[in-house]
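Work package 3, deliverable 3.1, input record:
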Amino acid sequence: MPKPDLDRIDRNILALLQQDGRMANSDLSQRVGLSPSPCLRRVKALEETGVIRNYVALVDPAAVDLSVSVFVSVTLERQVEERLDAFEAAVVRWPEVLECYLMTGEADYLLRVVVPDLAAYERFLKDHLTRVPGVASIKSSFALKQVRYNTALPLGHLAD
Amino acid sequence: MPKPDLDRIDRNILALLQQDGRMANSDLSQRVGLSPSPCLRRVKALEETGVIRNYVALVDPAAVDLSVSVFVSVTLERQVEERLDAFEAAVVRWPEVLECYLMTGEADYLLRVVVPDLAAYERFLKDHLTRVPGVASIKSSFALKQVRYNTALPLGHLAD
DNA sequence: TCCGAAATTGGTATGATCTGCCAAAATCAG
DNA sequence: CTGATTTTGGCAGATCATACCAATTTCGGA
């Protein structure tokens, strides 16, 4: 999956589609100063090369009663590769884990878990996280409020 | 902005659009067992009531050279409301801050900052974060790898 | 149980949009 | 300057979104 260099127009397209993934190609082409045909071709190329991973709808967590975010620091017993892979394989199977990062420092992993309430989080700990072999320590921090949640990568600063 | 109750079909629509925000309404209607007309009407209603916040394209961070995620724990001097508001107002103006949460426990805020490299993160600290009045302490943790990044809220478990 | 109002659904016609092609223009190397 | 490659713009056919209307279903009150 080669990722060729992106010129000014490509980055402009990405910036706009990051804000509105359903923007009509006719609108998009106007904003980037192209006619619809080459604009659509660039978008398709960005999709096929994997620069654009996918398009999604963002849902209000409160509207579906999923407004509790928990950040979980997980330390494994020993950082042998096998253990890491097993943990990561488990993580991707749990839909409650929206994000997971392998971290520097003392904690090995940082997870963001989304649940409807604390009871559901307890169930997640008991039924899933603590059952993975090799988990040495778990530290939970709760988010009181989502001040900002943005999916758009900051492309502005590298505008030619 | 009232958020009326969502039935099985609505949640099904949300689950599908969270996976593919550009799915054609004709496809969507088939999958949820409806004809195109009422299906589109439901989608529009979900948009207008704010259940669907927006549609976005997700971009591969590596393809645009933004593969460094830094988690920043920020403590303010005193948690007076005025200070919190000022900090939050600053945060939403910085495009590098993709996420920001008000946390329980010792640290007041947890931020996820996305930058191209460590030098850019240094600049972010020096030029922006440390200049906000009231910031008492800053602790940075670096992500070595993004194991999982999902934007779809887990709706499966509440399927009727 | 029955009735009637309200909400939801399915179908259709219209307009907009996407898509694949071809020629023209621009870009680049030699 | 020339020729090849890449990118662009416009056009035609197909697909899709949208706005209506009639038919069906749902639900509360009698």
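Residues 24-26, 36-37, 40 of chain B lie near DNA strand D (CB under 10 Å from a C1').
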